Amino acid sequence: MKKSERYLALDVLRGMTIALMITVNTPGSWQYVYAPLRHSSWHGCTPTDLVFPFFLFVVGVSMFFSFAKYGNTLNKASFNRLGRRTLLIFAIGLFLNSFPQWMTDYSSLRIMGVLQRIALAYGFASLIVLSMKRKYIPYLGLAILLVYWGILAWFGGDDPYSLEGNVTIPFDAAILGEQHLYTGFGIPFDPEGLLSTIPAVVTVLLGYLTGVFISNTEKAKLPARLALYGVLVTIIGRLWGFVFPINKPLWTSSYVLYTAGLAALVFALLIFIIDVKGYKKWTSFFVVFGMNPLFIYALSGLWARTLGMLIKFETADGTVVRGSTWLYQHIFVPLAGNMNGSLLYALTHVFFFWLIGYILYKKRIFIKV
Predict the structure, then answer these.
(1) Tens-place pLDDT, residues 316-365
(2) Which of 122, 139, 182, 188 is the most buried (most CB within 10 A)?
(3) What is d(CA 317, CA 314) in angstroms, rounded to the nearest whole number?
(4) Is the pTM of this model over 0.70?
(5) Domain locations in the chain?
(6) Which long-range contacts (CB under 8 A, 24 or more apart) does 317-324 make?
């Protein structure tokens, strides 16, 4: 098998998703966030709702090239790699959930989360692509999406795609325990729960199949063909959304196709600009994020929890506030006001973690997570 060409656009897309993850996760105040930087309240898809599936899509594309050294087959070496990586990413996510109360009370610890979903989606998708004939992967992916649709439709309540009536709640509660679920929606419901991680595996599989596609397509023809593929998948997802709503918290099957199609479109555009036309000077900022993506993301999460839960400041009237609140109110609001100050706070964090990534990049330090 000929060695597949490496595309800089893949590193850029990966870096973009990490930069956007930090941006949307660390506003100065959740009361002041521009609409495109908010998740949809339930059904629908905002630009922010694209970030996570884009990252899983990139994980899938990268898998094809990273497993090439193992012949893209399941053997002792490839199994050890995927097993270690799955456990490590999951453990880091669990640690972040427990920080800074770790080693104390685990009775209400949230078990799932973004990194945990990345770990499980990567792990199961890896087992599939390494053990199954490639021609059957699309059919398995479609079967998973259809079965997931059936589970939600048949076992949910009167409104099976609603917050209160969806079947992921009793499923996750039965396995994880209700006290271990996310409560940010006002009830115990985990948007990164176990049941909704099943269709997220397909997001990774679609990325993997895209990796296969680009490795077998001439560079000059790739952007147009990948864009066509992206348009078709996006349209199918959008049409499916009329009967199975596009919904990130439930990670619905229509959402899987819709977001994967858009990811392919963005990827095609980046390949055209960067790898075909050769406009590369602007890419260095995102490449820095793309070289140590999960490390930088986990570090940003650790810092956000430290600043929000461990570091405290006392105001002039004697009130003790979180470090993040103090910084926003005393530095960023005076500089730019409530709304723009909140955005500036987030962008400052992006730049701060870019500096850390830049130092690692210049020293050729790549932390494998």
Answers:
(1) 787 888 999 999 999 999 999 999 999 999 999 999 999 999 999 999 99
(2) 122
(3) 8
(4) yes
(5) 8-38+281-369, 51-279
(6) 324/28
